[in-house]
Amino acid sequence: YTAIYSGFAILLLFMIWLYLGWLILLIGASIAFYHQHPEKVQWDDESIAISAVMRENLAFQLMLEIGLQYSLPDGFVPTRKNLAARLKIPQVMTVGMLNNLESFGLIARSAEIESRYLLLQDSEKIKLIDILRAARNADDKGLQNQLQKAAVVSQLQLDIERSLQQLLAEKTLKDLILQSRGPVNENSNV
User: Is 16's pLDDT higher than 60?
Assistant: First the structure.
């Protein structure tokens, strides 16, 4: 019995060894691939929850990148994929904020196969406060009007909105673009 069943045991151990060997090889290949191509990592839509500050930063950064294509044409085409790659964030986050900015009338998609994003107005006419409002109201879905608020909370919100309005009242996307270039030498002939 030992001689007969030991042959089966050797076959079983060989198959387990073969399975583990291939498992190690395939896991290593997957790790190497995703290390070389981090943009290919798939994120679940439900697992991405970003803070309000991140939403605001993302909105300003996307508008800056789209606006820079007009003032500093470096060959960058602001598509969903390119913007996500440049900002080093998942494309799902980029698409969500681009859709919000588009619904607020700040940008538009071109009708190409891989659509690029364009400003709907001149950068001098797009106020930073409008970009901030688009980011803040991104996932509102009309629930803000249904929320029961105490009078002190409503007053606090109005005070915050007024202070933001004073701070950003006259600042435009063009100001942000000019600041991103760095200090401009007025004596240069360029």
Answer: yes
